[in-house]
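Hi V.,

You were right to ask for the full record rather than a summary. Here it is.
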Amino acid sequence: MRILRTLTLVAAMAATPALANPDAIRNTIQSQIDAFLADDFSTAFSYASPTIQTLFGSAENFGAMVRGGYPMVWRPEDVRYLDLREENGFLWQNILITDGDGQRHILEYQMIQQENGWKINGVRYVRATSPSA
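Predicted structure:
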C-alpha cells in the first residue's frame, strides 16, 4: 500500500507545471497550429492524444471539427501563450488567439505526456475578448 501511495505521489508530481517543460508544450501546440495553417490535417491530427484520435477516427473528421468549431485555431492571426497550470492532475496551457477579424479568444489546451512527447488531449473555449483588451 505504501508503494502505491508513493507511486501515486510521484505520478502527480510529474504532472505539475514546475516539472513540465513549458517550451515543449508550447511547441506541440504551435506545431499543430502551423499544420492547420498549411491545411495539413494529418500532421495536426498527430499532435492529438490517442483519446482524441479515437474520438474522431480520422484526420479528415478532426479537420472538419476544427474548421467548423474552432475557426480561430484553424486560421489564427496571432497566438500568445499565457499561463500553464495544473488542475485536478492535468496540465492546462492557456492561449490567446486573435482571429482574422481582430477578435480575441482565450482557449485552454489540456496536455498529456506520452512516450513520444506532449499531446493535446482537449481544448476548452474560455471566452472572447474585445480587440482592445
